[in-house]
Amino acid sequence: MAISLRNIFYPAAPATEAEKRNSRKILVIEGALAGTLYAFGTNNFFAGYMTYLGMSPAHIAQICAIPQIGCLLQLIAPMYFEKRRYRKAPIILLCFIFRFCVGFAVMAPVFFTSPAAKQEFATVMYLIAFLVAGFVTP
Fold first, then answer.
1. 86 Cβ partners below 8 Å, 6+ apart?
2. Over residues 42-48, mean pLDDT
3. What whole-number distance in Å separates Cα of residue 24 and Cα of residue 13?
């Protein structure tokens, strides 16, 4: 039985109880992985990484406030998601963008040689990631 993406994201019939149970199991596993990635991209690891890239402690403190700015988007996100009939596709896309940006922020030393370029790239990736995370987790 071939399953198309359209059937996954925009099903014709409501989910059965077995499908909901399987989704909950997958959600628990995915939540554990997401929590690990979130911890990896924040807190002490991130501060140490930015210090390694050559940022000053004052600049690091300013960047570490970005997740709080993302929380402001939590005020608008429910209005967007409640008006949508199907929420799965945008949520998956936004979660992918978050993971992609956090993962690529760590790759700054591979892509750039200039310390300023490394710092700016990591900062932009971090900003995008946490603005998206703030929007998708109301």
1. 9, 10
2. 78
3. 18
pLDDT mean over 116-131: 90
CA distances from 35 to 9, 44, 52, 59, 121 (A): 24, 15, 24, 25, 23
- Which ranges of the chain would DSSP assign to H, the alpha helix? 5-9, 17-40, 43-52, 57-63, 66-72, 77-83, 88-105, 108-111, 115-136
| 8 A C-beta contact, residue 106 and residue 49 | yes
**What pLDDT was estimated at residue 40?**
67
Predicted TM-score (pTM) of this structure:
0.73
What is the phi-psi region of residue 53: left when phi exceeds 0, alpha when psi lies from -120 to 50, beta otherwise?
alpha
